Amino acid sequence: MARLDRPPRRLRLGLRCLAVAASIGTLGAIGAASFAAAAARAAPQPPQEQQAPGYTDTPLLPDGKWCVHDSRRPQPRVVTPGSASTPAQPGRAPSDAIVLFDGKDLAKWTSGGGEARWKVGDGYVEVNGTGDIETRESFGDCQLHVEWCAPLPASGDSQGRGNSGIYFMQRYEVQVLDCFQNATYPDGQAAALYGQKPPLVNACRAPGEWQSYDIVFEAPRFDGAKLVKPARVTVLHNGVVVHHGQELLGATAHRELARYEAHADRLPIRLQDHGNPVRYRNLWLRPLGEYDRP
Fold first, then answer.
1. What is the DSSP letter of 16?
2. Strand boundaries in the chain, DSSP class E
């Protein structure tokens, strides 16, 4: 078979250059495509809606509004907790609390339609015989924190020793009384729902020591003049549960049976002047709302 002659040297060089150029073009195209893809990945992407944790295919709860673990249910709002008190220093209220007495003045209180005139001391306010005081603002369902101190030295006995009181809605009393080694009728002692229920236990500290009440109060509901739901109260005295969801029989009365009369949904809180120099400090309140309403 006849041998094919090799192409001339110049032709071979030309063909080789064309092959190299083609390779460079291919690599360039690949590089450009890769660069474009990387740029697309790095470019700002439109925000995507994140799926809230939970479920929407679970059984419906009895209220008929939400499913078990419902991802659509509103998140509770965030509250910064307060701090505990010490004998020398009152604690800090939660971030959403209404501070009723900050240790400085009685600007949020009134008495007989005028200024509250109890004695304001070094971080406390003291009963001084000028009459009851009540909040300028009105409240319904609420959590109330109160710290109080019976006089030292102690004087008197039974109801005449360190007597005062905390009245929700101007009429439902949680009793304040020095009951440290001081006997009185049970439904009139410290932390009693006066005239209705004694506390489960006597958790009183000695006179001269600061004591605390943490009270959850649920206001009664009326339909016109008719009682639909009685008031209910939970009380912790010095951290000890002394009433748990206890229903009230009605407005506080002395030597009479308590009964309800229809009233407004919100009314002031009253502190009683019973003639004894009881001291108060660190009063704050949190109005209580409904579930799923942040």
1. H
2. 98-101, 109-111, 114-115, 119-120, 125-126, 133-135, 142-149, 164-168, 172-176, 211-218, 221-223, 226-229, 232-237, 240-247, 270-271, 279-287
Query: Residue 214: which residues within 8 A CB-CB, separation 6 or more?
Result: 143, 144, 145, 235, 236, 239
- Structure token digits, residue 132: 């009851």
- SS3 of residue 36 by DSSP: helix
pLDDT digits (tens, 9 = 90+) for 123-132: 999 999 999 9
Note whether residue 9 is domain-resident. no
- CATH number of the domain at 184, please: 2.60.120.560
Q: What is the pLDDT of residue 281?
A: 98
Structural domain range at position 256: 98-287
Mean pLDDT estimate for the chain: 89
Q: Which of 192, 147, 137, 197 is nearest to 170 (CA)?
A: 137
State how far the Cα of 231 lies from the Cα of 251, in Å rounded to an integer. Answer: 10
Half-sphere exposure of 158 (CA within 13 A, CB side): 4
pTM: 0.82
**Residue 138 placed within a domain:** yes
DSSP state of 67: B
Please return the burial class of 280, using the count of CB atoms within 10 Å of its CB with bins 0-12, 13-18 and 19+: buried
Residues 6+ apart with CB under 8 A from 114: none
Asked if residue 145 is part of any domain, the answer here is yes
Spans of the chain, pLDDT less than 50: 1-4, 11, 17-18, 20-21, 24, 27, 30
Give how many domains the chain has, as a whole number: 1
> DSSP code of 250?
S
